[in-house]
Amino acid sequence: MGRSVIQTLTFWLSEHPSIVGFRWSHANSWGSTWSFLFTAIALYLTISVLLHLLLALLRRKGRPVPLGPIPALHSLFMTLLSFTIFAGITLSSAAEIKETKWFWRRSKTPFQWLLCFPLGTRPSGRVFFWSYIYYLSRFFHMIRTFFTILRRGRVVPFQLFNHSILTFISFMWLEFSQSFQVLAILSTTLVYSVVYAYRFWVAIGLPRAGFAFVVNCQMLLLGCNVACHVGVLLMHFMKGGCNGIGAWGFNSVLNAVILLLFLNFYVKIHWGYGRRVALAAVEEAKAEAAEEEVVRVKDK
């Protein structure tokens, strides 16, 4: 019974003809053109700004727009989608390594293949199918921006920049058969599965973590990405070149900008969190002192 379930999942996640025969094509893959990419990002930014302006005119100050169960359902959907992509690309990578290692095994180990595709790699097959699904999932991530605007009544510039750049990067992975994307998708979807599960947990009224859980997860993800980027660079010079290294270099610059912006945000979050904890401790100490004073007065 258990083996049958595993075989069924393996078929649907890595052996289905649509997955094995996938090919990134401007003619046949939805959303695969540069014009679509730039139009979609521009539309996302425009809607976000217009929604912000509309709320500034119509909404009462400090009053969030009620969203009901929508954010919780979105978080649940993104949890399942992220985990599906993680499972799919894990099984697909194992299958691709098994079938193609005869071609590159003298120069690379399987882990090195995950970092550095051989020169001449084309965007087709199992791994690129799940890379394509990940690219499409970026548009579902954008929806969370609208929730933030409706709740807070304002745009968060870092959020707009982050979603736009990550969507652009995921497009370039496919367009240039870029190395490193497998490990990037594995780590990102694993972290997103945890982050969105936590958001769903909080959205249905369960207790929050005692620290900035989401921010720390994102910081961990960025740290892993930096380490992998260093690995790609070393592999490129030591193993005869990695496919899509030009796109990788451009994406590295974009990732560096995101990292710097996030570090600034991370420091502010932790500084603010530390100050809130300190102020809460001071207030608690004052309350305890007041209670002791009342007791002493009563005793007299």
UniProtKB/TrEMBL annotation:
Alphabetically ordered keywords of this record: Acyltransferase, Fatty acid biosynthesis, Fatty acid metabolism, Ligase, Lipid biosynthesis, Lipid metabolism, Membrane, Transferase, Transmembrane, Transmembrane helix
Record keyword Nucleotide-binding present: no
Localization annotation: Membrane
Chief site of localization: membrane
A single GO cellular-component term on record: endoplasmic reticulum membrane
Membrane topology summary: Multi-pass membrane protein
Gene Ontology MF: a single term: fatty acid elongase activity
Protein name as it appears in the record: Putative very-long-chain 3-oxoacyl-CoA synthase, Butyrate--CoA ligase
Enzyme Commission code(s) on record: 2.3.1.199, 6.2.1.2
Top-level division of the source organism's lineage: Eukaryota
GO terms of biological process kind: fatty acid elongation, monounsaturated fatty acid; fatty acid elongation, polyunsaturated fatty acid; fatty acid elongation, saturated fatty acid; sphingolipid biosynthetic process; very long-chain fatty acid biosynthetic process
Tagged with keyword Chaperone: no
Pfam families: ELO
Coiled-coil boundaries: none
Transmembrane domains' residue ranges: 34-58, 70-91, 111-135, 155-174, 180-198, 210-235, 247-267
